[in-house]
Amino acid sequence: MTTFDDRERAFETKFAMDEDMAFRVTARRNRLLGQWAAARMGLTPEETDAYAKAVVQADFEEAGDEDVIRKIVGDLTAASVEIDEATVRQALDDQMVEARRQLMEAK
């Protein structure tokens, strides 16, 4: 039974590591997306940092990406930046790739 127990522990450990990495990638993606949106709104570096943190926090409102997309589109529209949801979704995808790249390089 020891071999079976060892395999089970190994799978549990791998699952935990994968979940942790997925969380970190999503948080990094949201921060990068916040920086992307802040640049379009013309925010200062201090405002950009605060806004990026607010975007990361917005992701905890509900499961999925809709809360983040809704925040970005709403904030850009309020700042008189013409943007559509498709553009924000594309930026979200682009930032996901960048976030993964950054985290893989950091290892």
UniProtKB/TrEMBL annotation:
<dbReference type="Pfam" id="PF07345">
    <property type="entry name" value="ATPaseInh_sub_z"/>
</dbReference>
<dbReference type="InterPro" id="IPR009945">
    <property type="entry name" value="ATPase_inh_sub_z"/>
</dbReference>
<dbReference type="InterPro" id="IPR038293">
    <property type="entry name" value="ATPase_inh_sub_z_sf"/>
</dbReference>
<protein>
    <submittedName>
        <fullName>DUF1476 domain-containing protein</fullName>
    </submittedName>
</protein>
